[in-house]
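Appendix B. Chain record.
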Amino acid sequence: MIETAISSRDNPIFKRLKKFADTARARREAQMSVLDGEHLLVTYLDAGGQPHTLVRAASFDAARFEQLATRCPQAKAIVLPDALFAELSPVATPTGMLAEAAWLTPSEIEATPLVIVLEDIQDPGNLGSMLRTAAAAGATLAVLSRGCHDAWSPKALRGGQGAQFVLPMLQGVELAAWLNAFSGQSIALALGQANDFYAQDYAGATALVVGNEGSGLTSAVTLNASLCAQIPMPGQVESLNASAAMAVAMFEVVRQRRGHRGGVA
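Structure tokens predicted for this chain:
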């Protein structure tokens, strides 16, 4: 492995990486992003991806970096001073390595549709966590509104822990039109609803609709959903975090479908 040392912010490779780290438009136009940390890189490789560039901070273990590079035979290897590397990192304590990588387009999942529909989820950690939960629960598709945070931002990728590599996604979607065209049932999770979420049957094609962390779902979306339902909360708090609510809902679907297949309910 031959490493190229870069020490200037004016270097074109560093400037490109900085754009992908910081700018949704640059990521979208190039269909590229920055994967922060060894775990994300390995998960990306396991999903069939090959990074364009590998980058390490000068303090990162060179032998470990070389070992990872053997799985990326076409990637250019870069080493940066720690201070310069920190400018690319999405976290206060940098991991010490990252990769420049093309977005993956996972194949359509052959299963009874289980879709998450997300409206204006703006916190990247929440968004990544929701995608991770959906992937873990066997979701077949994620549909994101135009107001959602970029699913391929470094912080959303950290939150997703590789979900973006395996879960098919549609971004920038007009949700009311999508829901109107969906052939299955769509359940909007909302407060103050008479319908009990647990009382519904989720054996068939289902889309679970979750809204913005603060304002919830818009009326345009709820009007185009098949049903609005509330997760029962017998405790003393007003609501669940949007990510937590989606996790509860997703795994209720999993529980019911296991029962329909004769598994352990």
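Further analysis of this model is presented in Appendix C.
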